[in-house]
C-alpha cells in the first residue's frame, strides 16, 4: 500500500529560503519582501505542475522566463534555484516517490530551458538595443558635428556685427568667380567690384561712442542687403564694405549698383536716438576676367575709392588705368628720391635775378634738378610735390640749402660784389623746429655772409603771425638772412598783413606778368586790370619798404613794362635760363646780360 503524502511546508517559508539563496547573485530591482512574494508564486506554480498529470513543459519554461524577466538572470542564480528546489520542494511539497522525482527533473529541465531561452532573447534584445542606441548616438553625433561645422563655417565667413559676408567669404567668392573661366573671345565674362567706405564715420565713433558707431554699421549693412538683392555684400572691416557684381554687362552696370548703394546709405538714420546724416564714397572696378586677377581687382578698387574721397566724398569714381599708371610712376619716383640723394643724382642750377634799373645781376635762385637714370633730367615741378607729400622734402630741402650755401660762399670769395643766392623753403621746412639751427650751422660752417642768403617762403607759411614758423623767420632775419615771399598773389596773404613780418622781398607770381598786354600802336592806353594790380602791389610794397621782383619774364616788352610799373628786379627766360654754377662764373666776372 502507498505511503501517505508528506506534510507540506508553507510556500512562503520555502520562498524565503529561495530568496536568500539567489539574493546577491543578480541586480534585482525589487526589495526582499517583493522577491519572496514573487518566488512564492513561482513555488506554488511549480508544486501545481508536480501534482498535475501530465506536467506541461511550457508552463515550466514560462517559470524560467519569469525568473529572467524579474532579473534573477545570472548563471549562479539559476544554479542555486535548482539546488533549493531539488533539496526542499521535493520532500516538503510533493510525495517523495520516484514518479515525483522524475516529474521534478522534467520540471527543472523545462525551467532551465525557459531560463536559457529567455536569457538568450534578452541578451539579443539588449545587444540590438545597444546597436540601435549606438547607431542613433552616432547619427546624433554626426548631425551635431555637421551643425557645429556649419555654425563654425558660418561664423568663420560672416561678420559677427552685421551678419554680412566677411573678407574670407568675399575672397573665396571672388576667386571662385575667376576659377569658373573667363568666357570666350566673342563673349568674355566680366565682373564688377564696388568698394564702399562711409564718410565721416570716425567722427561718429569719436563723438557719440563706439556703440552708436556699431549700430550705424548694422543699419548700413541692412540697407545694402535690402537694396542690393542678389549681390554679395561683405564687410571687410571698420566702415569698409564691398559689393561683388558677377557677370556684369558693362561699366554702366556697375555704376548703377554703386548709385543704388549710395542712395541707400545717404538716407537719414535714427540710431539710438541720434539723427545721423551719413554718406559714402565708392571706388568702382569693372573689367573682363581675362584682363585682370583677384588681387589686381581689389588693389584697383582701393585706389579708386581714394580717388572718390579726394574728389570730395559722397560720390563714386571709376577706375582709370591711365591715371593709375601715372600715379604709380609718381609713387615710384617718390620712393627713389632718398636713393637719388645718396647716389648724387641731384644737382643745382641757378637762374639770374636782374635789376630792372641797370641790368646788373642782383641774385641767383637755386633750382634743384634730378638727373634720373631712366627719365633724364627732371625739373622741380616733377618731383618736389611728391617729396612734400611723402615728407622727404625736409631732407631734400636741407641738401639744396647746404649746396646753395657752399656755392654762394665760393662766389663770395671770388667776386667783388657777389649776388645773393635765393633758396626755396617748402612749408614742412618752415615748420621744422630745427630750421634756425640748420641755417645758423650752415652759415657758420661755410663762412657765408648772412645777407647773401635769401630764403623764399610761400604765402601759407606767413598766413598767421603766431607760431614757431614766424618766430624762426624773425630769428633768421635778425641774423641778417633775407626773407622773400614767393609767388605772391596766388594765396591769401595781403600786403598790410606783412608789415610786421620779417619779409624783405615780394616775388610777384608769373601769372600776372604773363597777363601784361603786348605793346601795339593801336593799343588802348588805358591800363589793363593786370597792370593796375601790379602797379598797386608794387606801390604798396614800396610803402612797406619791400623790394619787388617780377617772375616769369620772357620778353623784353614785359621787362620794360615791369620797369615802368616800378618793379625793382625780375627773373625769367629773357634774362637767362637756369644754368650750372660753372657757366655762371663767367657772367659773374662781368659778361653782359640782356638789357631790360
Please describe what this structure looks like.
This protein has 596 residues and is an alpha/beta fold. The chain has 3 domains: 11-129, Globin-like; 167-319, Reverse transcriptase/Diguanylate cyclase domain (Alpha-Beta Plaits, 2-Layer Sandwich), CATH 3.30.70; 340-585, EAL domain (TIM Barrel). 52% of the residues lie in helices and 16% in strands. It is built from 21 helices and 16 strands. The protein has helices spanning 11-22, 32-51, 57-69, 75-93, 98-157, 167-179, 201-208, 210-227, 251-265, 294-310, 321-335, 337-343, 384-390, 393-412, 427-430, 435-446, 468-479, 510-514, 529-543, 556-565, 581-588; strands at residues 190-199, 232-237, 240-246, 269-271, 274-276, 279-288, 316-318, 346-355, 361-372, 376-378, 420-424, 453-457, 482-488, 505-508, 547-550, 569-570. The strands form 3 sheets. The protein has an 8-stranded mixed β-barrel, surrounded by 6 helices. It has a 5-stranded mixed beta sheet with strand order 2-3-1-6-7, with helices on both faces. A hairpin with a 5-residue loop joins strand 8 and strand 9. The longest helix has 60 residues, at 98-157. The N and C termini lie far apart (174 Å). Mean pLDDT is 86; it is low at 1-7.
